[in-house]
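Thread title: Can someone regenerate the structure for this chain?

I was given the following input by a collaborator and told the matching structure tokens would be attached. They weren't. Posting the sequence so someone can regenerate them.
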Amino acid sequence: MFVISFLALVSACGGPLVGVNVVDERTALENQVLGTYKELNQEVMLVASVRYIDPKGKLKKVKEVPPGKKKVARAIQRASFNKDDIDRLKKDSVLGENNKGGITLLAPDKVEAGRQAFVENLVKEENADRAVIMYRVIETNEKLTEKDLPRVRKMFASLNRDKARIGEMVQLENGQWVKKKKS
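Best answer:
Regenerated them for you:
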């Protein structure tokens, strides 16, 4: 009740104090990239679930998916398929989120000898998939060009650090590797 009374009193005293909203460059870029990334994920879901059957029960051919959209759909699907293995390796501090938007093999000595090639290939696939997604975000956003790639990578790295679980290894912007302590 006190808060409502206080707000009513403050709002009645002389109108708005300052009508300026400050949005820094990173927030604007982050919003652009996040919006585009969400659209890509939705498109993948639509591409994966579309089929058309006419009233007579015959399957109709759907429109051909453009190559760029098909490539990002495959990348998102493969990343989703590999997620459990990557999460397990991140939990064991074998992998970490680097400051370029990818993952890094931090402790190859913790990987069983028979699984070395598997883990190395997993890192290679994940980083390739993330690169495809980043490039597609740039391609589909009219305000971004390839010269924005370093900024997009930093932004993806920041998002990945934020999404990392407590105890996972993350690389800070300055290059230092640390265990994430809080969300």
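The mean pLDDT is 79.
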